[in-house]
Known about the structure:
Elements: H1 8-21, H2 78-98, H3 108-116, H4 131-147, H5 151-156, H6 158-175, H7 181-185, H8 188-199, H9 214-223, H10 248-251, E1 258-265, E2 268-275, E3 278-280, E4 290-292, H11 293-299, H12 301-304, H13 308-311
Antiparallel strand pairs: 1-2, 2-3, 2-4
Helix pairs in contact: 1-2
Bound molecules: 2-acetamido-2-deoxy-beta-D-glucopyranose (2 copies).
Amino acid sequence: xxxxxxxxxxxxxxxxxxxxxxxxxxxxxxxxxxxxxxxxxxxxxxxxxxxxxxxxxxxxxxxxxxxxxxxxxxxxxxxxxxxxxxxxxxxxxxxxxxxxxxxxxxxxxxxxxxxxxxxxxxxxxxxxxxxxxxxxxxxxxxxxxxxxxxxxxxxxxxxxxxxxxxxxxxxxxxxxxxxxxxxxxxxxxxxxxxxxxxxxxxxxxxxxxxxxxxxxxxxxxxxxxxxxxxxxxxxxxxxxxxxxxxxxxxxxxxxxxxxxxxxxxxxxxxxxxxxxxxxxxxxxxxxxxxxxxxxxxxxxxxxxxxxxxxxxxxxx
Length: 316
Ligand SMILES: *[C@@H]1O[C@H](CO)[C@@H](O)[C@H](O)[C@H]1NC(C)=O
Ligand SMILES: *[C@@H]1O[C@H](CO)[C@@H](O)[C@H](O)[C@H]1NC(C)=O
């Protein structure tokens, strides 16, 4: 390798990257175990103990955990990335020039891999945690959790998550949902906008899409009477409400969406409603996916007057 005058470290990184990128195909024999010899750049999975059985001792209970953990596998610093992007390309080209096809020292398979290789990192990728690094941290935490269900699960247990979930549901129930009628009645302009768009006989535009925030979606869901509760959600009723409909984790995730599709059914207008890409049936037509548009309008008629400014006591 001195042939190319490459500093060992850069070359090492080259081989690592080269082989990691190509790991699905496996590098030639000499490099098969390369991951075992990468010094402080070794991935944690080489050394990790994968046992997940609970570690316990008679008459003892694990109660605290203190740990010092090195960050997971991450990209090199910008200086090294720049060297990789210049020097490694030179080395690759030198290899390809010096070992023309058929030369026994590097086989054709590996030469192909070199041919297909190009640098993947940019300066602003420096020090970012890689997927490998992410897995290292997540899997480590998971194994610790199974070894010491006590300690870690007291904070991160399902039941603690469920209480936090309920708190979140309450918050949005009262801020954006069914808590106060005025809150969700405000969504009437949006509903009216949809109905007018479907009513017009203009064939274009064919679609209208609004991008908005969580609160708007929730108000609209409540306005349509979706995910309604029989009784208001209250903090005291946590135990009774485990089967509630109003779970914002499920109805108001990032990217949540509500879509209406107008169908023409042999001259009759019908509306399909989808929430998060699942077909939902509204109270206007509880027994069918497609809702006759007139039925739909009649059902929500009382809301269509939409005296928005009066409701909100806007000074005009
Ligand atoms: C891994 O850890 C378990 C205890 O959780 C231990 O019994 C086992 O010997 C360890 N494995 C190795 C290879 O050290
Ligand atoms: C659309 O056309 C239908 C039938 O041709 C008519 O009854 C309806 O009033 C029209 N709607 C509008 C908004 O012009």
